[in-house]
Amino acid sequence: MASVLVVEDDQFVRSALIRHLTEASHTVRSVGTALEALREVAHHRFDVVILDLGLPDLDGAEALKMLRGITDVPVIIATARDDEAEIVRLLNDGADDYLTKPFSVEHLSARMAAVLRRTQAADAEPPSRVLRVGGLAIDPLRRQAELDGAVLDLTRREFDLLAFLAGRPGVVVARRELLAEVWQQSYGDDQTIDVHLSWLRRKLGETAASPRYLHTLRGVGVKLEPPQ
């Protein structure tokens, strides 16, 4: 079930929404102003926000823009306004759906379910971005690397090192940054990096004396770039 924030200043409507959503096994928090809503989303994680436009302290359209500045939580607008131009503007400003008052609890449940399905589908299927540098192809999601179509047999740390450098092709990366980002250490022995670079070079079919992809700049750092 979902964690829901109801932003509604009408106490009767607010109570009815809380009762219905709670009976449907959702976890519900509610506020009556835009500023309270901003504080809630800053301190709690919600699956969906139901936002009334007619709030006493700030127009709901402005509240929506402010919400979008701090969170990507799905927002369903609940409004008595039925002006098409305004509804289009709200959708363009980041609303995920809208309901025109009065609406039934069944209608609200259906809209919530649809929004949550879209959100869950997006979370379950992150976009795959294969990093390509010359004949190298690195897939961070599958944790697979290929060189000229042949799969490389890399250890976990070798893959992490190669993927990190491949995300910054042609950029010299300082050893301190490699330790922090790949080894998750604020300090350490440079020899650790040198050993892994040596192993990685061997699997890429190159040496420090005759580099193709991995280039070390003494006293500066390491860069990955396609062969010249």
What do you see in this structure?
The protein is 41% helix and 20% strand. The model has no long low-confidence stretch (mean pLDDT 87). Helix 2 packs parallel to helix 3. The chain contains 8 helices and 11 strands. It has 228 residues and is of the alpha/beta class. Helix 1 links the parallel strand 1 (3-7) and strand 2 (27-31). The relative contact order is 0.09.
Q: Give the number of helices.
A: 8
Low-pLDDT segments: none
Query: How many β-strands, per DSSP?
Result: 11
Mean pLDDT: 87
Q: CA-to-CA gap between the ends?
A: 55 Å
Name the beta content range: 15-25%
Query: Shape from CA axes?
Result: elongated
Could you list some keywords that capture this structure?
228 residues, alpha/beta, four-stranded antiparallel beta sheet, 8 helices, 41% helix
Fold topology:
Elements: E1 3-7, H1 11-23, E2 27-31, H2 34-43, E3 48-52, H3 60-68, E4 75-79, H4 84-92, E5 97-100, H5 105-124, E6 131-133, E7 136-139, E8 144-147, E9 150-151, H6 156-166, H7 175-181, H8 190-204, E10 214-217, E11 221-224
Parallel strand pairs: 1-2, 1-3, 3-4, 4-5
Antiparallel strand pairs: 6-7, 7-8, 8-9, 10-11
Helix pairs in contact: 2-3, 6-8
